Amino acid sequence: MSRSADAALVKDNMKATFGHRQEMVHNPEMSSVVIDLFPRFMDTPGLVSQDFTMLFGEEVSGRFLSQWQTFYKPRIIADCKRLPHSTHMNSLLSSLSQPSDWSDDWDSDLATILLLLHLLPPTSQGKKHKKISASEAGDRLVKFMRTGQSMANVLIGSQPAAPFLLCVGERKSSIQNYFIVMEQKAIPCEANTTVAALDELFKTHFVFGLSYDEPLCNLFTFVQTTMYGIDVGTAKESPRVREIRARLLNNSH
Question: How far is the CA of 118 from the CAs of 69, 84, 219, in angstroms?
């Protein structure tokens, strides 16, 4: 059987078991073993997006990617330019104006998402935890691995629960493969662009019933309610999330 025929068969089988998987996701005793019982997530790209689309429909599933380049990206950049600039923010803004395949900077899409973390800074983790910076939160959202390095070392060092995006390539500006790392396992992304890989990272939370990483909660809640329109009015939002939504949606960029 050809690889494409095998992938199509896997996707059909996963559609047939979607209901069972959702029952497991919402069962606290079973949710942590979903990926172990359905290991094809780890060798067949596209299964995360397929489950998410079965949950919410094609229109909702495509909202982020359809509006990112023309609507959200320019507004985020324009809003960040009005903020006081930190060293990290200056670095991100400069990478937007000097794109290069030979650069050690992230591409403009990922740089813009990291800028959004400056608009939606990490939430405090309580009195016992030191507040982390937007730059440190970005390191929890996405990590870079040079081609040829050991994936096992990245997986061993990852947190068990919070998923993040792993970008593999020669340089940050030239990524060949994307993976969602969760529970010390790597799920290959179907995406071949950074923004599409971030789309899959967000969807992973719903497909596997995972909570947002606390420092990234403002960011992901904004993406959920504003960009995808999921649970608008019922999801718990910080005042900052509501403020940035109003500002970006009213921005006549």
Answer: 19, 10, 10
- Torsion sign over Cα 40, 46, 49, 51: negative
Distance, in Å, from the CA atom of 141 to the CA atom of 1, rounded to the nearest integer, reads 37
Q: What angle do CA 114, 172, 98 make, to 5 degrees?
A: 75
Give burial (CB, 10 Å; 0-12/13-18/19+) of 102: exposed
DSSP secondary structure of 159-171:
-SS--EEEEEEEE
Beta strands in 2-130 (DSSP E): none
Cross-strand partners of 182: 185
Rounded Cα distance between 110 and 141, Å, is 10
End-to-end CA distance of the chain: 51
Output b/e per residue, 166-178; b: 16+ Cβ within 10 A. Answer: bbbeebbbebebb
Label residue 31 by pLDDT band (50, 70, 90). confident
Sign of CA dihedral 156, 162, 121, 229: positive
Q: What is the mean pLDDT of residues 12-29?
A: 95
**Cβ atoms of 185 and 176 closer than 8 Å:** no
Q: What is the pLDDT of residue 28?
A: 87
Contact 69, 30 (CB under 8 A): no
pLDDT digits (tens, 9 = 90+) for 82-97: 888 888 888 898 888 7
pLDDT at 219: 97
Rounded Cα distance, 163 and 161, in Å: 6
The angle that helices 3-16 and 18-25 make with each other, rounded to 10 degrees, is: 60
**Is-contact 249 129, C-beta < 8 A?**
no
